[in-house]
Amino acid sequence: MAGAIAVAGQFTAGHSAAESAASTEASDPAFAPVDDNGLPVLNLPEDTEPAAAPADPEVSDECRADRGDQRSGQGVIAAFNYAYYNRRDGVAARALATPTSTVTPAPELQTFIDKLPQGTNYCLRTVELSDGVFLVDLSVMRPGVPVERGTQTVTTAKIDGLWYVDVFK
């Protein structure tokens, strides 16, 4: 159909973009005039009710970069990243992994750590998917470079009362 413009499921034949915007604006008060690119500008009413609290108070959107610990799966993930990014210590990071972990040996970890520029920072968010399995959202902030974000699944294991990272996918 030559000369037709599809707008939200309707075909308007022979109208210019300005006429389409004007007819849309006239028929729907939520639309205001178009912007410089010809796109409609929404004129939505202000939200008068406060936002609802999160349904699950246990899930935190907080990005953390603390020392962590070996008292929980989340704690050991934080401890591993602290050893890697803050302490810059491959031996300490590898010591927080199970003996059969997919984590590379300490000398290789140290090689990767040494390639990070001084001043590199990080933060991570963890959400427990199942017992000992976490979705980890890691943000790495290198000086002068945009933030790099990556998501991975980390499996942890409890051995002799202490938690260790095991598998990174």
Attribute tags:
2 domains; two-stranded antiparallel sheet; 4-stranded antiparallel beta sheet; 8 strands; Nuclear Transport Factor 2, Chain: A; globular; alpha+beta; disordered N terminus
Architecture overview:
It is a single chain. This protein has 4 helices and 8 strands; from the N terminus they run E-E-H-E-E-H-H-H-E-E-E-E. The chain has 2 domains: 4-42, no CATH class; 73-168, Nuclear Transport Factor 2, Chain: A. Residues 1-32, 37-44 and 52-59 have low confidence and may be disordered. The strands form 3 sheets. It has a 4-stranded antiparallel beta sheet, with helices on one face. A two-stranded antiparallel ribbon has the order 1-2. It has a two-stranded antiparallel sheet with strand order 3-4. 24% of the residues lie in helices and 31% in strands. The chain is of the alpha+beta class and 169 residues long. It starts with a strand and ends with a strand. A hairpin with a 6-residue loop joins strand 6 (133-141) and strand 7.
